[in-house]
Amino acid sequence: MFQLLLAVTSGAPLYIVPRHLRGDPLALTRVIAAENITFTCTTPSEYSSWLHSGDRSALLRSQWQKAVSCGETLTTAVQAAFRNLSKSDLSVINAYGPCEVTFVSHGIELDYMSDSAQESAIPIGKTLPNFSTYVLDEGLRPLPVGVVGQIAIGGASVAQGYLGQPKLTHQSFVVNTFATERDIAKGWTTMYLTGDRGALRSDGSLLWASRMTGQTQIKLRGMRFDLQDVEANLIAAAKGAIADAVVSLRGGEDGLSESQFLVAHVSFATGRVPQDPEAFCRNLVAELPLSAHMKPSLIVPLREMPLTISSKIDRSAIQQLSLPSAPAATEESDVLSTTLHLYHLSEPERQMYLLWQSLLPAEVLRSNPIVSQSDFFGAGGDSLLLARLQTAIKDKFNINIPLIKLFDTSTLGGMAAQIDGAATVAAVTQSSKLVDWQEQTKPAPVPVNEADESDLDHEHPPRNIVLTGATGFLGRSILGQLLTQPSVQRVDCIAVRDASTRDLPPNFHDPRVHVYDGDLSRPNLGLSPFNASAIFGRADAVIHNAADVSFLKSYTSLRPVNVESTMTITSLVLPRRTPLHFVSTAGVAHLVPPQSRGQLGGVGEVSVAGSVPPQDGSDGYVATKWAGERFLERTQSLLLADDKRPLPLWIHRPSSVMGEGASETDLMTNVLKYSIALQALPIIGGSSSNPQRGASTETSESFLDFVDVETAARSVVRCVVAEGGAGGAPEQIRYSYHSGEYIIPLQALMAAESEGDPSVTATQAQGLVDGFGVLPLAEWTQRAKAAGMNDLVVALLTGAVGDAGNTLLDGQIMFPRLLKGAI
């Protein structure tokens, strides 16, 4: 009907493509030229097909004048394809309108030939005459400009409802309470709730964000995310080589969610097909700035994407595509080399591969050649499967490998080295490429689009505060402390996973608190460009508290969440120089070698830039916090070198935070909980089984250092509210420990052990563990395990038992003397 209406009202002939030519981009582009077609209206996927696989010369000589895109999101890749066509007399119009409002309600002509046309968000246009557009919250209340909500449309051509479906009609077609007197007089009193999410821009144009519910929203490994986020990252990471990407969830036929994995199907842009597409795709996965659970286990190149009858990418058809299999071996091959790509593996690697094969998704293993460098997590594994692999290794080889070592050596070669000895197998670990800390902390160029000078002044005390990690252990207390401050009028809690579905604590229902769904690993932390602009445009201070606090994962695994999120936050605060409070860890102090420490062997509230983490990526959590600090320091130096206004920066370093509500896998919480249960503290500094041992200078000068979560939160908020606008030159970065509420010298524990009837005095523990006994770490860990301590914590402490210097626990349980002040 739409096609007939256009033809009749414009007086132009309507060309109906013969059935045998439909879906053939070469034939269709030649029809456009031969039949003097001037106007087309189809989906971005169909246009992509024409521009990449059609007859380019036919299009260039054609009379084609207007290309209207609708029905799907117009991506920057399709816009770039129009630009590459270089047809200067062709207008490209992005349009939007559900059929429930009778065809098209929004449209905009794109300046696709300009250099600025590659912006990430392409508007779907301004409201057309006789329509009205609203962006509403869950209570159907209007939202301000830049805030994402449900798109609702009113006006002359809104349908009366769905024929024969009164319930669905009642849900989607509602009374337009915002109708003007003119609209009411004309009878335009119905508003259609589209089920689409979007936001209005200040110029009145509308931006589409996503469907409110749909087949691209999934939950994997307990994490909810949108497959379209993964697709957008694939296209961006390919730097123009990939035209389209569709990610689907596979596996789980056995009823187990742990056997599910992601598969990406991609089509390459014209002239950009790599010489080795499979190798290109494998490398692309490794480069994706996403958490492990969001990375596809397999990328499958397609010549072109299957389309529906309405020329949209057919996700259902892609979901049904069979996955490619690796070439099979001859029947004479033995069981250890059932596929040709296993021939080059050593015997220990083949043995390890068989264990992988028993646990990992078969489709991924069949489709991906397994080599020494193949990563367990990249092949569909996760932490739960890794724990099962640990058990399988013990059952098969009678070797107990600490879980932390499997995390660190998560490649096939690295794991094989663990069972056969480093001398026989070259350990190819995930961290085999030494970390270049200079490169990892390299600051981004200073943005050119800085705010006006008048917008660089912020309210003090701050009224509008942005907080990450608000649902975490420390974050909940920081939020509570902020709400006690009379000056605080608004707290925007961002990057909250499953914000709309999870049961949040009472503080989140305070009218001053505004929660935004997102994830640290997602682009822009999961914020739409409009929400990001609005939130950081009004912020007076930002507290970046969120992090993946895992002492088992390597630096490489933690970097997307812990380091890249800090880089993203920095890019968002830089234009207005919004004061930034970065919550690091006192664990960075242990990186400072004993000979470089100050008075009493301590580390003051100063930069630790000169003491870099291990280059192998171990000590992952502390390494990510060091990298975050160093990135901020280098960003500040870059600003000053360019004679730019500095960024007000605070770096907060809490020690072991304790209190109610800590995670069951939190290391220090477990040590305290089971020390109370056992009435004994673990001796971290060595094993009593070796009386000749000598504790290292560093170990004997280490401390257990605790701070209550409320004390730490109060201290952070005091810096934000009371000290945020004063103290020190603006170019100075202020460092602050939040520590020392309870301190237990490890020397005292070791001395008590050597006296035969060990106990810790109230003076040594400041009343926290009065009269407790002490036990060697190995014995304490086994007793705590029997008492119910979390298996992951047991694995970490067990790994530390075999670590001569207990370096695994440095910065996690043990700290050097933390000296307040710049000493």
Automatic annotation (TrEMBL):
It comes from the Eukaryota. The keyword Phosphoprotein applies. Residues 343-423 form the Carrier domain. It holds the Pfam family PP-binding. Residues 438-461 are annotated as: Disordered. Keywords: Phosphopantetheine, Phosphoprotein. InterPro entries: ACP-like_sf (IPR036736), AMP-bd_C_sf (IPR045851), AMP-dep_synth/lig_dom (IPR000873), ANL_N_sf (IPR042099), FAR_NAD-bd (IPR013120), NAD(P)-bd_dom_sf (IPR036291), PP-bd_ACP (IPR009081). PANTHER family: BETA-ALANINE-ACTIVATING ENZYME, CARRIER DOMAIN-CONTAINING PROTEIN. This is Carrier domain-containing protein. It comes from Verticillium longisporum.
